[in-house]
Amino acid sequence: AQSVTQPDIHITVSEGASLELRCNYSYGATPYLFWYVQSPGQGLQLLLKYFSGDTLVQGIKGFEAEFKRSQSSFNLRKPSVHWSDAAEYFCAVEGTSYDKVIFGPGTSLSVIP
Amino acid sequence: DGGITQSPKYLFRKEGQNVTLSCEQNLNHDAMYWYRQDPGQGLRLIYYSQIVNDFQKGDIAEGYSVSREKKESFPLTVTSAQKNPTAFYLCASSRGDNNQPQHFGDGTRLSIL
């Protein structure tokens, strides 16, 4: 069965520091992978997506993610975090049936000034 | 600008009452979805609809009902059979093709009085 794990429930980083949020998925074939961000009391906004091709994907707001098939991972990175990046981040995987988008439990990011 | 509108932002329900959450989209998307979000559990799919006048149960459909009479509208009714309705409800839509990302509304927070 498809599943997504985000090992870190909460992460705190200093403003200007680099960031990496981990995501591991379980899926037999090549998955479609997404990262979403959610600000408090708001809906989810798509940061980036991976379908095929280049394993390093660029997204909005300076984020990127790298797909590593051997590690079943799709980690999200940002070289320099801004205070406005504080939010909840969700990794998601879509399988062969588009209605089955599986979301991870989320990682809450706090940014220290 | 195109988007998804959920209303109301906050909703209160008395025990034994049914309540309906509104979701309207002007993105011309075929597919629409309802998710429930609880702290630490990510998003769980309640119902989805691929086309007008058709919808399917998701993972946690018990105690909920939906209708899809128009392409742009997908209201969710939380019935009195739902014993733990307090949650944040998110509506989403997508083009309906495989691997198309979902676009989200800003959510409705439902609480029990």
Q: How big a fraction of the residues of chain A is strand?
A: over 45%
Mean pLDDT of chain B: 92
Order of helices and strands of chain A: EEEEEEEEEEEE
Largest interface in this structure = A-B, 24 and 29 residues
Percent helix range of chain B: under 10%
The coarse silhouette of chain B is: globular
> Could you give the distance between the termini of chain A?
41 Å
SSE run of chain B: EEEEEEEEEEE
Model description:
Chain A has 113 residues and is mainly beta. Chain A is built from no helices and twelve strands. Chain A has strands at residues 3-5, 10-14, 19-21, 24-26, 32-38, 44-50, 56-58, 64-68, 73-78, 87-94, 101-103, 107-112. Chain A is globular and about 40 Å long. The relative contact order of chain A is 0.34. The model of chain A has no long low-confidence stretch (mean pLDDT 91). Chain B has 113 residues and is mainly β. In chain B, the strands form two sheets. In chain B, strands 2, 4, 5, 6, 9, 10 and 11 form a seven-stranded mixed sheet that branches. In chain B, 0% of the residues lie in helices and 50% in strands. The chains are: A mainly beta (113), B mainly beta (113).
